[in-house]
Predict the structure.
Amino acid sequence: MIGYTMVGSNDLEKSTLFYDVLFALLGVNKLHGTDNFIAWGENQQNPMFCITKPFDGKEATVGNGTMIAIKANSQDEVCSVHKKALELGAHNEGEPGLRLGGYYCAYFRDLDGNKLNIYNFSSK
């Protein structure tokens, strides 16, 4: 259903380095980019995560109540990505742990304040 998600960045170069490291931990590739836009994903037929400089040239701001969830392959990956995000300057929004319905999640805000959830689902 979702083709891609996009968040704004005020420092595309710094944000690109941040997400390159995190997505490498998840085995996700950078698919393409320009001076104003970068996309990561498995391929262009699956959902992608993108960062961009706002088209209107104004400052990128955060959506209140907006959060993007990124799937991890294991609980260990959830922990690794969350730890690395914090090491790279992200703000902790929730330690890794089991949440409602069998979701193992961790939350953080990226360098521009966008809220992300790294999760793994286990029906066990």
